[in-house]
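Quick question, first post here. What does this chain look like in 3D?
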Amino acid sequence: MKKIFTLTLAVFAALSMSAQTQMRVWVNGAIDYQKGLADIDSITFYKPAVTPDPDPQVPDTTPANPNFHAKAFTINSNGDQIFFSQGNLQYQASTNTWQFATNQYDIIGTDNSNISSTYDGWIDLFGWGTSGYNNTANDPFAVNYQPWATSTAQLSQSIPIKGAEIDNINCEMQAITGKCDTTWKGEETLNSDNINYYGYGPSTNQTDPNLAGTSANYDWGVFNAISNGGNKPNMWRSLTQDEWNYILRGRNLAQYLRSQATVCGVHGYVLLPDDFTLPDGLSWSYQTNDWDTNTYGPQVWSAMETVGAVFLPAAGYRDGTDVNNVGSHGYYWSASYFYQSYACCVYFGSDGAGMSGNDRDKGHSVRLVRNAE
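> Answer (accepted):
Ran it through. Tokens below.
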């Protein structure tokens, strides 16, 4: 006995337009799309196999740490907001791989002294603007652009200018580049408009002396794919001096949303999101002057992370290959040029936090953010 199905035109239209579900009509044991309803034995529905998109439009940005839940931080008076990455930026030279630390309190510490172009461990203290972006053809002052750069030597006072003709060879810059460099006809002397004594980041004679605009590729998160942060370039960026300062002092109730803390045995600084609500049974004291008042073990800190708490560990700083102040001070680069051969950074210790300027050659921590959509 034939089975007769009564389907409305609207249902047929919906089925035929569906990109995910298709209809098969069976007549006498074979598929037949041409018969009328009176001749149909049965109707089955199936989903055809879909070939995965090799380059999906929405990359997976799920953090490796499932406890970290990014919450919004307001960064200016316009109400623009960002989300912090799950941990500090790390780099492995032997594989040219960038990643975020698995946990917010993870730091490399004194092992940063092993920094080199072939080191197979991880580093997390970087000179300013050392994303790996080579712009020396347009900016001959920016000679230390690799993440493993350690030079603390100042550039010669006489630097080749773009477009000049080759004159002769000298070795004045050997301490910077590791090889003899070229002297050009028409040398210009460094002055307050183009100083970059240590050769890190865009020089101040560029259109954009900050890590932005035409110089955006000097920013680690703009130029590089972060393996556990979407694995595509231009997904992350560094905060500017003004944005860091707004988080620390400018946003609503900012003074109550930050403090020194110790998380899983690591000293550092906690920033709380705009809509922070303290979980039941937990404690929080703002702007303490010690590492002991806000102390969180793994279980309690996990609860703080689920409501968006951000932790900046006191990872210290690197000077050449010497690593100092691990566990007592934190230094985090901003995207902003400061003065001459200095760049702006966030600085904190047991006595509080604020903005400062430091030599670009110093190895500081990098904490990237992405814009809230």
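Residues 9-46 form one domain.
DSSP finds five helices and 21 strands in the chain.
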